[in-house]
Specification:
mainly alpha, three-stranded mixed beta sheet, 18 helices, globular
């Protein structure tokens, strides 16, 4: 399977455009001479677009809140240290990850390296500090050259988590004047196809946060490597998983069955209007729930940048789940008996900002409780990033962008628009 994935990548890479157009201080327009072959991908285009980056830079220059305060926090983050040194991969190139970090051989170190690469690449395109670009390139090249494989039970999950951040960092650096060579970028992408994609391509029968992190990673890799088939596959998996992960009243007395596996709802027994927006993992704990929702939202945001508006398709579910969980996360919230039998394990995560921007700002569906949660709980966090997929959401999506800043998605040519799940053509080489 891995060899076939590499063959697919080699075919793709042979036609992959590289090079820089003059006159762009950071973002560089890709060569479109092969556009008929590759499709009209937008770059940079993993979670944040070039137009959004340009708008954020102006907001920072104007000291506009909450963007400016988030930017100052990012500058002070341990993940943004100019002196940052890559912690991995292990000397033998094998990262071994078990459940709940037992064992943890290179897993946490990869998490920290991914945080640093994602944040420092973002800061580079915002302020042009050369050290951020050099640090990111050093981290990416270390894994391109030294990482061989994942081991143990959490290998697929770690592959999804890390790919979420690797694709974001690589996308920003690749489409800038950072100095990451075409050969280095190809080596990094080849590593991702060899070590990550085979573990996550089929999806997962486990709890929803597993598959959603994998889907987010596949969206990122598809954009990074301009793989329209992988993009369509990720879209299909997303459309299958979201209805089974977020319950809404119209689903009836039972949740939508999962597309794969038999994950439980952790003894949640009430399914009606009183729990509109509850997640498959809410009664497990709100930490894993927010991870699943963050990945679902990040994936949809990447699709939106590429011209596929998944948020509109699932607007009712997203509005319901953001409001439902924001109520639970507000300080002093009381948990009624009909929600998880009155017992919810709380955890605050630095997320919901991207979802709020998509649903409240773009789709004009008011989310007052989500905004209250962001104002009271999320935006005051001192270093709003986690080990997995949440990277300074207030900095990137904490302000509504004007239409000229790219809030309206581009229209994709017909050959790139993913079809309904049962119609999506699969890449047989990757499935074997």
């Amino acid at each position: 399977m891995a060899a076939l994935a590499l063959l697919t990548f080699a075919t793709l890479a042979a036609a992959m455009p590289h090079g820089a157009a003059p006159g762009h201080p950071h973002f560089i327009e890709p060569d479109r001479s092969q556009e008929d072959l590759l499709g009209a991908f937008q770059h940079p285009g993993v979670v944040v677009s070039g137009a959004r980056i340009t708008a954020i830079k102006q907001l920072i220059a104007n000291k506009t809140e909450p963007i400016f305060s988030a930017y100052l926090k990012a500058l002070a983050s341990p993940s943004a240290l100019i002196s940052y040194v890559p912690q991995g991969p292990p000397a033998d190139g094998v990262i071994t990850c078990g459940s709940y970090d037992h064992p943890d051989i290179g897993c946490s170190k990869e998490d920290f390296d991914g945080d640093a690469a994602a944040l420092q690449s973002l800061l580079y395109v915002l302020n042009g500090t050369r050290a951020y670009a050099l640090n990111t390139i050093k981290i990416l090249n270390a894994y391109a050259q030294g990482f061989k494989k994942y081991n143990n039970s959490n290998a697929p999950l770690q592959a999804g988590w890390s790919l979420d951040k690797w694709s974001r960092a690589a996308e920003l650096i690749k489409h800038s004047d950072a100095g990451w060579s075409a050969q280095e970028a190809l080596a990094f992408e080849e590593m991702l196809y060899r070590t990550h994609l085979p573990l996550i391509y089929p999806g997962s029968p486990a709890n929803g946060n597993w598959e959603l992190s994998m889907i987010e990673g596949m969206f990122g890799l598809a954009v990074l490597s301009e793989n329209a088939t992988l993009f369509a596959h990720a879209t299909s998996l997303w459309r299958q998983r979201i209805p089974a992960y977020i319950y809404i009243t119209s689903d009836g007395p039972k949740p939508v069955p999962p597309p794969r596996g038999t994950p439980t709802w952790y003894n949640q027994s009430v399914f009606n209007a009183s729990v509109n927006g509850i997640s498959q993992e809410t009664c497990r704990d709100l930490g894993h729930t927010q991870m699943g929702l963050a990945s679902a939202i990040n994936a949809a945001e990447t699709a939106y940048v590429q011209g596929v508006d998944l948020f509109s398709e699932m607007r009712t579910r997203f509005a319901a789940t953001l409001e439902f969980h924001s109520r639970l996360l507000l300080p002093g919230a009381r948990i009624p008996e009909y929600i998880c039998h009155g017992n919810v394990t709380l955890a605050v995560a630095p997320t919901f900002e991207i979802g709020y921007n998509a649903i409240n700002n773009r789709l004009q569906m008011p989310l007052p409780t989500t905004l209250q949660h962001l104002l009271v709980t999320v935006r005051p966090l001192p270093d709003p990033l986690d080990r997995f997929m949440m990277i300074y959401e207030t900095l990137t999506h904490g302000a509504k962008m004007p239409a000229r800043a790219g809030e309206e998605p581009p229209r994709l040519p017909p050959q790139m628009v993913p079809r309904a799940p049962h119609q999506v053509e699969s890449n047989r080489m990757l499935q074997q």
